[in-house]
Amino acid sequence: MPTSDDGVEEINEHSFEKVKQKLKDRSKKVRETKEKTKKIISEQAEKIAKQAEEHEKFINKVTYLCGVLGFGGFCFLLGARPQDVPYVYCLFYVIFVPLRWIYYRYKKWHYYLLDFCYYANTIFLVTLLMYPRNEKLFMVCFSFAEGPLAWAIIVWRCSLVFNSIDKITSVLIHLLPGLVFFTIRWWNPITFAAMHPEGTARRVSWPYVENKSYLWTWLFVVPLIAYTLWQILYFLIVNVLRRQRFLRDPEVMTSYRELSKKAQKANNIWWRLSGILGDQNRMLMYILLQALFTVATMALTVPIFLSYELHVVFQILKVSAAVWNGGSFVLDVMPRQVIQKEKKKTDMNPLETQLNESSPLKSPVQNSPTGGCPGTPDSPSVENSQMGGYLDTPKMSG
Description:
Elements: H1 4-54, H2 56-80, H3 85-107, H4 116-130, H5 135-155, H6 165-187, H7 189-195, H8 212-241, H9 243-248, H10 255-266, H11 269-274, H12 282-306, H13 308-358, H14 382-385, H15 388-391
Helix pairs in contact: 1-3, 3-4, 3-6, 4-5, 5-6, 5-8, 5-12, 6-13, 8-12, 12-13
GO cellular component, one term: membrane
Keywords: Acyltransferase, Lipid biosynthesis, Lipid metabolism, Membrane, Phospholipid biosynthesis, Phospholipid metabolism, Transferase, Transmembrane, Transmembrane helix
Transmembrane segments: 62-80, 86-104, 111-131, 137-156, 168-187, 215-238, 283-306
């Protein structure tokens, strides 16, 4: 005879199974919603990219106009209302970084958004919006902005090209943070009012730091710890969690893949240095070289932080490098790209003619006794049909 305890146990077991089933159903629903959302975003990104390709010349002209006007407007704002520059930066970040993600996802470049510059820019955004008067956070951000990000403009040749949204965005991601923290430190009227008592002419910056150990701690040691944390996370995501994804699809790009590809092609110093420990350890050497670059550039932020004159010279150097690289790109690289594009179009024309001639709607063979059957010279060959992969635009990555 079943006891009351058995009944209770049976009810509990039934309730547990019910809850378990509910959780399974909910989990399934969440997965389906996630897949649907991903599919919609992918389709929209592909649609936008295709439309952009169709109207490339017009978009380039509009981009050039907006780029030049925007640059001029920013220069005016920098002189007239430097205290508003941080808000311009925040607006730029929340608009252009999501747009870049959409475009990069379409191109299978979205893992670039795991790079240190985006990690640092996210910290800048949080600091400016939530902790604008926190001196320690300001110094960490200053080290990131005027250290690795600023020197990347010079070392990695970021180019200010006004007719390219992608290149303008890349330059601003590396250039704007330094200008933001420059204005906060030296040109902010609110800071001046707080730091300049009436009757004194001495220029005092914010934050005002006299203790050298405090300076090195927050401009070098703490930023280096934050960088190391990013490097560990990056390695885990790219080399452990998403490793199979990269092995399955060689078109998916990361910074390491792109730099390795370019360095190998050019056979330059970076390729030779990264191969010191052998081909199997190139990733390790890349991490070590990047770490050395970060340590060196962060150490240089200390004298820049202490000297207004040196900081002004550094701003001029960064802008000059971006403009110079942009000029080199426009005069040296773009003409070659145009020639290659025209050559590609010329190579495609005979193929299109052949496909049109072989089409049953346009080919005169359709009225002939053979009827344009497979195997005749007028039917498209297997070789031509395989060109579909070349003609199609890249698909979205998963």
